[in-house]
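Data card: per-record layout.
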Amino acid sequence: MATPNYSYEKRQRELAKKRKQEEKRQKKQQQRGDEPAPADGAAPAVDSPTPPPGG
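The structure for this 55-residue chain is written out next.
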């Protein structure tokens, strides 16, 4: 008999949890009045010039 792949099961649970949290976030966003929010919950990036690599 094959052994259970616990890491696969754990990953599937994590993905399901993340998907559920994203759906909840979108639902809250729609109820608030469709205010734009970053998908990952981080602050929006500031437009600042980045120095070229190695320079």
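Known properties of this structure: The chain has a mean pLDDT of 82. The longest helix spans residues 6-32.

See the next section for split statistics.
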